[in-house]
Fold these 3 entries.
Entry 1:
Amino acid sequence: MCQHGFMKRIVIAGVTGSIGTQAVEVLADNDEIAIVGMAAGAKARELFELATVAGVTELALASERFAEQVPDGVTLRVGAGSVEALIAELKPDLVLNAVVGYAGLSITRAALENGADLALANKESLVAAGHLVKELAADNGCEIIPVDSEHASLAQLLEGIPADEISNMTLTASGGPFRGWTAERMANVTVDEALNHPTWTMGGKISIDSATMMNKGLELIEAHHLFGVRYENLKVLVHPQSIVHALVELTDGMQMAHMGMPDMKAPIAWAVEGRTRRNIGVAPLDLGVIGSLTFEEPDLMAFPALPIVIEAGTRGGSAPAVLNAANEVAVTAFLQGRLGFGRIIPLVAVCLEQLQDMPGSTFDELDEADRAARALTAEAASAVEVST
Ligand code: MG
């Protein structure tokens, strides 16, 4: 919804992260979109630097603890709820939500409740609360545009194809740094090994999610909500080169693929610039140089995240929120050296099992499920630590 004349106004939440900074770069030479607000979690210095360079004066910082001097002319909102307040005050046309984790859900809600379209990089919003977020978007006449590369690819593939001609959708996965490994070999890998993603450069949480393949699981739930596709019609294919981002299988047996170099700038630009394309400096794909593209089925014995996610997604209600919260806590424990890599997914499975009966039909109920899952997983993670 563009209600402000010529310039489309965007707020970027999570601006200091990998997606946020790339979005600022992409928008630097776009004179049809003005960044009117920026928000960050705790990185005050980076926020102020980005805002100064881009000439943005309306800011929010979720953390209250920072030592840096607020730049002249800047209005800074601080603390819990400050990002949501920024959105409510500025009433932008578009919000890019590039916050990591469940914390992004309240920003998704603030965007939609204030009538803004949502460029969504925070997949956890859709994973935990997809059914309610979709409803909120419809009620407010807002669009949700995926920034996640596979989903941006699917959205582009699906343009112009009648729904009854689509049989399946496939998300590709690089397989992460431990593709081809057994569960035993992966059990005690280090944080550095797990962060070392072969094809994409990303933040810590999503890199670990890629190493466990939980990321692809979360993306299945994301796709289910974005495209209204049933889980039995969603497939995952491991594709180490990360050139084909997604495939759509048609009823005549043909498939369409969306391909390109693995560079997040492409889906970011497509999403924030209103589903349009231009040259933003992504290296052209030269298949002759790449030579071969390979594909394989995911190894569900070594990577049990996928079946666990499909079960939680199919169950619906609070299950995906519980799954997401347990995973966030387990990944943090791993990143802090408190939990073995091989314990992340089993811990998520235990949490899902134990919190089966929590309701999940309102945002409040999902918050409750999220809190319960965090507490349970934190407790279980520290018990594991004591016993080893
Ligand atoms: Mg992705």
Entry 2:
Amino acid sequence: MTIEKKVAFVTGGSRGIGRAIVEKFAEEGYVVGFSYINSKEVANELINELKNKNMEVFALKFDVSNYVDCCEKFEYIYEKYGNIDVLVNNAGITKDKLFIRMSEEDFDKVTNTNLKGVFNCIKQVAKKMTKKRSGAIINMSSLAGIVGNVGQANYSATKAGVIGMTKTLAAELGPYGVRVNAIAPGFIKTDMTDKIPENIKDKIISSIPLKIIGYPSDIANLAYFLASDQAKYINGQTISVDGGLSSI
Ligand code: NAP
């Protein structure tokens, strides 16, 4: 008897946290798909690296903020792989500026990617998951969505929005066996945080109770747990992974 492999799809899986989530699910035996928007070479390298380890992975280039693009790509995934058991809405961007200087364009770009992108992707899987009476959706929020952050009016609004959407969908989809949870990372070492000047990074790290930066694998481990049966009674939660920063 062959056991059918579960399928996970991770948006923004070419780099950073998304990449660690792709690696974790692939290592644990999932068929894993991921999206990217620009990093074609990096995505291909990741595919080759994991395929060389006999893992089943695929990548699709599309913009999560484009609804039509999302419809087409998810239709392709369902046709080719038959199902999506786990959706991780990870793709996200920042366009930081003090509110006074923030342009409408910077607000729209961040909102369309970080919040509308989550809506666009969940729309493609929700009905199918409820029909199947199973599925797990994990949305990437942020510490900034819980406590706010200077220079991130756009970003923090999207990440707070993700928490609201997570709670609502947990209530709407829960009765059909679909769990929806969010993760709120603190300060994690990726390209997104590498952009921050060293002196500010040092200041942030000194304010973290554990006094260290987090790593993408710290988030990937929780994402994998939340998707698993070990978390079968966890629904509608936003779990912080931030070295204690949100608790002070
Ligand atoms: P990152 O290193 O900048 O990677 C972002 C990923 O998202 C890349 O794979 C990128 O693709 C993809 N992406 C960006 N815009 C996209 C779009 N419109 N459509 C599809 N894919 C898109 O970011 P990260 O630090 O790993 O962050 C991942 C998530 O965690 C984000 O939602 C972020 O807000 C959240 N988060 C991060 C931190 C942190 O400290 N790093 C803290 C809290 C929350 P390309 O490679 O093609 O550009």
Entry 3:
Amino acid sequence: MTKGVCILGSTGSIGVSTLDVLRLNKAAYSVQALTANKNMDLLLAQCIEFKPNYAVIPEPELAEKLRKKLQHSDAADTVVLSGEDSLASVTELQQVDIVVAAIVGAAGLLPTLAAANAGKKLLLANKEALVVSGDLLMSAVSKSGATLLPLDSEHNALFQCMPAGYRAGQCAAGIRKLILTASGGPFLHTNKAALAQVTVAQACAHPNWSMGKKISVDSATMMNKGLEVIEASYLFDMRADQIEVLVHPQSIVHSMVDYIDGSILAQLGQPDMRTPIAHALAWPDRQYSGVSALDFLSNNQLSFEAPNDEVFPCLRLAYNALKEKGTAPAVLNAANEVAVEGFLNESIRFVDIPAVVEKTLTSASIVAADSIPAVLQADSEARLLAQQFMRAYQ
Ligand code: NAD
Ligand code: MG
């Protein structure tokens, strides 16, 4: 029996890598739904190759263009849907077994939540959705009986190092701490003064991973690791003080679990997202990913160092938001999305990103994150505040 797959964000870096893995394991999967935001041409090519039952593109004009182009193609049976709600509804289809949540940012929250509520096998790359909604997403997973598997390389590594039978959301016994590794990004060892001058191209040129622009900038500011600390806290039910970040520039050890008996379990491999994607798609089995084995003799220098909170304050801001709880993580995330966008548009400098996030966190009112409307409200208010603060730097 093939498994029906829906990819939210199929035209992005994770979406394309997922389709690479599916192409290698064609007999095991059928692509049911693909979604994209703007890249209609790539979505068209993906539809022609994978012939999904549904393709979603939110803007009606783009959807109409896609419909016309598909009409006389090999994928004439693909139904094209528009509107934000269609992103959620394709995750709920009966023929969909697996949903890959690979939209970037809080924009992915509602469709990811819909997949969780529908009890699907949910492969989570979209960390911002979990950072924003926290316990709400985790309880949707446990109520519906959905299976949540992390795609983020660090969290997938931690999941693989958990005891047999482990399910995301459980607090496994016998763990002293989780050790999240961080490459340090393109500006590891760059001093604060030099950081003020860095360009968008430099910030997006990650030394080890090829990723979308937003996560590349987050990796350069270390906010990505901050978001990942929050993500790990919800996925593995751990407190902030049980999660440590260790800079490991080679990105070979993807993360580690430190057990109370002194054992440390690590997952190692090439820095290639097809490994966690193949693992989570096939879990609890294994399948080919197209990634070659790690050669230890040519990767014989693995080094570790402490993160520099003074030069990269985003990590500290994220720890503080996690400790504060409530809507603080949603506010942190929204302010960061606005500031990163501002940097990518060249309206603010790289070093202004943490300043905008910190000011927004200080002035936003933090309330209980007890409903999706409450977190969405916190998200919109934080975006307005962050835009105001950003004007001071333009
Ligand atoms: P990307 O920018 O390459 O792709 C994003 C995808 O989301 C695209 O398909 C885009 O069309 C879609 N999208 C963007 N905005 C949307 C909106 N408003 N509505 C609907 N669709 C929208 O991003 P990426 O690098 O693939 O990252 C995706 C997610 O996975 C992010 O949350 C990121 O943090 C996480 N992640 C990525 C990597 C990686 O290696 N790229 C690794 C770990 C985690
Ligand atoms: Mg990661």
